[in-house]
């Protein structure tokens, strides 16, 4: 996989992806956008079907500047994207609750990415099989080769959608509370409550053998922040793909 995430490369800025409010928090470079995407497992796909706006959460993965997601072949969303459908893909990480001395100045620390493009169903069986292999390897590097091979029924039951990222923006808040000078004497606690999702202790299947292969689990020791684990898994996959 070629991952073109150099900071000097950026997505074009247009009326569609330009950040208007708090524009100083905006980033358009590949590295910033891709880091937010790679630190997440779930995205939200926004689209319109027959005039009805919809938003669907799903698992996503990235290869270079191309995004993928998958679902059941019976999915209304995926059927609608078969011939090509404009979509907006978003990912958000909540990093902290920001408490201030006025309700107006309460906020949150976050990292978010918004990506625009045209989603199309992947019909070619070889490309589809390759994409599903990449999905497992992106989250659990080295695991797919040890699994039961994908069957014809698996392929039939699963749809995969690909989207070239045409435009994108990242927006980040990572600072403390901001109060008006005249509010600093208000006798109420202010500051940041950090927030993160953390990997827990593994819960093994009762059918595991004594020497069950733990391939692909290296990035997820208990106590690890999930966003950091996902980012590490993505990097391990990229490094392995380049070798």
What's the helix and strand layout?
Layout: E1 26-27, H1 30-38, E2 42-49, E3 52-63, E4 66-72, H2 76-80, E5 85-99, E6 107-121, H3 125-139, H4 152-157, E7 158-164, E8 167-173, E9 191-194, H5 226-242
Antiparallel strand pairs: 1-8, 2-3, 2-5, 3-4, 4-7, 5-6, 5-9, 6-7, 6-8
Could you give a short description of this structure?
The protein has 243 residues and is α+β, with helices and mostly antiparallel strands. The chain contains 5 helices and 9 strands.
Can you give a write-up of this model?
By secondary structure, this protein is of the alpha+beta class. It has helices at residues 30-38, 76-80, 125-139, 152-157, 226-242, and strands at 26-27, 42-49, 52-63, 66-72, 85-99, 107-121, 158-164, 167-173, 191-194. The chain has one domain: Pnp Oxidase, Chain A. The protein is built from five helices and nine strands, in the order βαβββαββααβββα. It has a six-stranded antiparallel beta barrel. The termini are close together.
